[in-house]
Amino acid sequence: MPTITATYVDTFAAQYGVPNGTFGSIRMQVCCKPSRRVVKDVGKFPLVLFSPGLGGSRLLYNVLAESLASAGYAVATMDHTFETLVVEYPDGSFTPGLNASYWDPSIPGRLESLLGVRVEDGRFVLSQLGRKDVVQKLAPGSACGFNTSRVAFYGHSFGGATAISALMNDTRFIGAINMDGTLYGNQTDVKKPALLFGRAEPSPHNRTNDASWEGVWKHLKGWRRELGLKNSEHLTFGDVPLLLKLSRLPIPVKPIIGSLDGERSFKIITTYIEAFMDYVLKGRKSELFSGPSEKFPEIVVG
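That's the 1-alkyl-2-acetylglycerophosphocholine esterase sequence above. Prediction below.
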């Protein structure tokens, strides 16, 4: 994690007892050694977009994204400038986010307006990734842009709301996952795959206690599923539980990440995300969505 971003995240995490410098000390090891072989046709990799939680950094979901990328997907994670804690650029400059009070959900229309901005961010990123000149800066030697005509979108919390809204408002998005996010904005009927991935007992979040989920559910006219993860909390759906498990820090954070083991929750979440993407972008059906799984008894299929 870049230095300035790590400082902002450390400051935020301190309220939960996370020692200063924790996120700055974390290093991510990729799954393979750098290759001299240039991939010219990046368009052969199915493209997936990711949006983080309200005010959150995309870098707190890096390991989730890497796991999906290792399955043969091109994963583009987004920060949302002025909303994210801080956005740090390659040249060392940065843009801090506005005060969190600006995104007060009690202000009528505020989050709906922000949702529209986020969806436009996603559209812009998608348009840029389809350009050869832009992609060549990201992947030197590439001979084309990504295929942006069939893209999946997933997100956590407000990022999940962003993914569902984008699915309903842009034909290029052909499938979306909402991970534990309350949904906002105007909904329209859509015949595209959608997954609402929430929480099961003892702290459930699903259609029975979130009217926004039930409201969206009736507009999902294609393949749709609702999942609940037992013993999870809102921040289970990201890298934090795994990072804290690996750090071995004795931090009392169960109220925000749940009691489920960090490595186990990571395995479950990444497996179901990959299975959904395989269905949407590769046409591979999975029995995981048909009902209870012996391998993953922590999942409740709704």
